[in-house]
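Could you help me review a protein record that somebody else here produced? Here is the record exactly as it was handed to me:
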Amino acid sequence: MIVVVVVVLVSVVLAAALYLLTSTLIEPPPPPMVVFGAVEQTAGNATIPIASSSREISPSNLQVRLSAGTSGNSSGMPPPNGSVVLIAGGRALRVFWLDADSDQVFGTGDAFRVTGDSVPLPYSTMFRFNLLTSSGAIISGMTWTTEPRVMGVNIGRSGDGTNWTLLITSTPTGLTTSAVKLTIITSANLTALGPTAFSALTSGAWNTNHAQFVGTGGTTIVVGDRLLISTTAYPSGYSVQIADSQGVLYAHALG
């Protein structure tokens, strides 16, 4: 009788130990922990650095998802230092995986770069980027809004006081002198100068426009370009507006 009890107890203990061993072996590892750094926006595009990752991860175990507004879609990981195209907000956008150490596994020090498809991201748009497991569980996410589409301008006077000087201090990329136009409005909200392309604001047309564009980038508008506007024809209290077909880039009173 004692022998039977001992045999039964040993069998139970062995079965329990085997269960614990096998359950430990088949239990999946916990999901990785990934922390994104602050989004860096340059030339209209966004870079998301990987501040830390609890372990290196095979790209086959990951997905990326990009949303703009309320729409977006997902894809498997881009190839190392390559990209995938995702449709978000009705636009084709690209997500690049920057494999910093070229080891072909994802980890700390790597980064994602989000761009338009050969163009910058759209202005004033909220984006959401998520890193997912292959099963779709969210590992980490980041939200950011692209910069507004504006032109930075500093207004001053020339040394002799005869002209307003409008110095361009920042500008969206790719603006051309034929597409961007200057409008000047009186203090009574009347049009003093109708929309006139920068390319038409020449020294030869000064007597007509009483304004001149002085550029250094050829047909492209760049930081450091200037507008000279007559203080006699357009006195203090008048206002300027710089715009193109997509909207107003800058508006301010003179003076």
